[in-house]
Amino acid sequence: MTRAAADLADRSGPAAMTMAAVARELGVRAPSLYAHVAGEQDLRERVALTALAEIAEELGAALAGRAGRDAVQALAETLRAYAIAHPGRYAASRTRLDTRTAADSAGPRQSDLLRAVLRGYDITDPAEAVHAIRVMSGLVHGVVDLEAAGSFDHSDPPPEESWVRVVDTLDAILRAWPPGSTRPSG
Predict the structure, then answer these.
(1) Domains defined along the chain, listed by start
(2) pLDDT averaged over the chain?
(3) Using an 8 Å Cβ cutoff, are 21 and 62 in contact?
(4) How far apart, in whole angstroms, are the C-alpha atoms of residue 1 and residue 9?
(5) CA–CA separation, 89 and 7 (whole Å)
(6) Residues 6+ apart with CB under 8 A from 85
């Protein structure tokens, strides 16, 4: 059922992921779904958890053995490719989860993978790592979201060319971390 809901979200957007629509996908009556899920919110959370797990799996494979700019590029390209291939799941991956559900999800694994990227930049202070993870996530997800919304469709150069700038900018930010630092880059 979760897979059917996720596929529906990819085809028609997360808003289309209703109990009635999922029941139609599965060829059953909507009330029968309630034997498996508590309702639409539960179904949306299940799709979010699935997406978080899939993204973590893909990031883990993409980041293995990479460091520095190469790791940042793998991170950005993996998230962008996932968003293009699975737009509904990608959108669902940012569903607000309660603290316990979030802690039990693949979200912490994604954070661990981002911390691994930071080791290539010698950002080891836990508080600074949190800030750096937020900067990485904000920049990459922000550009992915804008591209998915069609914000870059009306101008040249094509969005693919901007990805080089995103990666270069993020690499430069992380090499100069913390912001305002005068430590030499190496």
Answers:
(1) 50-175 (1.10.357.10)
(2) 93
(3) no
(4) 12
(5) 8
(6) none
Handedness of CA 107, 58, 161, 121 (dihedral sign): positive
Provide the whole-model pTM.
0.90
Do 105 and 49 form a contact (C-beta atoms < 8 A)? yes
pLDDT in the model for residue 52 = 97
Q: What is d(CA 18, CA 8) in angstroms, rounded to the nearest whole number?
A: 9
CA separation for the pair 79, 55 (Å, rounded): 7
pLDDT in tens, 22-55: 999 999 999 999 999 999 999 999 999 999 999 9
Query: What per-residue confidence (pLDDT) applies to 104?
Result: 96
pLDDT over threshold 70, residue 184: no
Residue type (1 letter), 125: D
Q: Is 66 helix (H, G, I), strand (E, B) or coil?
A: coil
d(CA 150, CA 156): 13
CA distance 117 to 136: 10
Which tops the pLDDT comparison, 122 or 51? Answer: 51
Cα angle value 20/21/27 (rounded, 5°): 85
pLDDT at 185 over 80: no
Phi, psi of 18 (to 5 degrees): -100, 165
Contact, 8 vs 25, CB < 8 A?
Answer: yes
